[in-house]
Amino acid sequence: MNWLAQAKKREGEMIADLQALIQIDSVLDEATATPTVPFGEGPLKALQWMLEKGDAAGMRTVNMDNKVGFIEMGDGDEMVGILCHVDVVPAGSDWVHAPFGGEIEDGKLYGRGAIDDKGPTMAAWLAMKMVKDAGIKLDRRVRMIIGTDEETGFRCIEHYIANEEVPTLGFAPDAEFPMINAEKGIADTIYRLQDVTDDDEQLRTFNAGHRTNMVPDFATATLQHVDASIVDAFNAYIQQQSLTGEITNNENNSYTVTLKGVSAHAMEPNNGVNAAVKLAVFLADVVNTPTSKRFIDFIVKGFASETRGHALGLAYSDDMSGDTTLNAGIIEFEAGRIGEVRVSMRYSVSYEFDEMIEKGRAALAGTGFELIIVEDSKPHYVASEEELVQKLSAVYERHTGEKATLLSTGGGTYARELPTGVAFGMLFPGEGDVAHQHDEFVVVENLVKAAAIYADAIVALATTND
Hints:
The protein is an alpha+beta fold and 466 residues long. It contains eleven helices and 24 strands.
């Protein structure tokens, strides 16, 4: 079967579906969350939209408590899983194209979720329909599992795993080609200032970031009892650093300082510009009252010069998965109440977690901070000799003529929730990763190519007698 030719014929269908899905603002919304709408109205609307598509295609659909759902086709005792998600991170700022518009320009379709993960989901969905319409006899069922909380904690897929059949093997179209068989561990951590005594502190507030899995693209601080020279110093700083910001003189030597950065995915903080860290670097030469200085100096020491955890005693790298990375994603300070830096740590596959965390705690001696582990998702690895890896490698090589080199990632995909699961596409080698950034996009031509690869992959994995 020439899957690429089939995908090209149905390109318009796929694009229309993707535009409709992107136009659903499916960011987690705690304000509209209820026991029956667990992650807010947007994610639920996106899930229902997908399940309606499955119904219309004549496939079996199940909605599991409005948290997660699935679309299934075929027969067999075993099952191939395609693990997708339709929730997205907040849009952030500085978009040229409407974040929930689905606009197409110069062969690119723009919108939040275009590459993470609505675009790949639509490519996999077209692949399922093409295989079904081709009438190919499969030995395993094929089930697309659709999550709505991937970006904020995996509560959806955890609900699925606890209550439904786990796929025999499967893939998540939520990363890059050729294939990711090693995913780093992901720890949600808090560095908390233990004494936030307010003895007329200069720093009154400091706030940055929405999510730990995003590099914060804004930061703001309010200060008191600082010299008026702060205005000229700040303007010189942002000019020297090629940054955008603003400083406002409120009254009585009180100022509000705002700085813009560049958002990026937490798996590689160096792809963004952390507005909180940049603001802290400036404030390090401004504040001198004890609590203010302790808080600001910690941010500068821990994150200003690198993102690999050397200053915090957590640095480690291995050949399977590369460097451990730390993203200071949410920063909150209020004089007399709280001083916290929430960090997403993506640690290497062979990381000795408990031992390294103890080293990290020892490194905090004298800083006034404590390290708290909020949540820890262990690393994931699938060996190269597994059927899943062998078959997907052959599919990729058949369609591209390139060697299917196995990769690792600091991003967390649903594949890590399966005993035998990998991330498979849909970024192609050489493509820049714009997930979680402004003007996120997917290349339409690559979307079509991915749909063809996924159709072939479905047949390969769901056929056991070849």
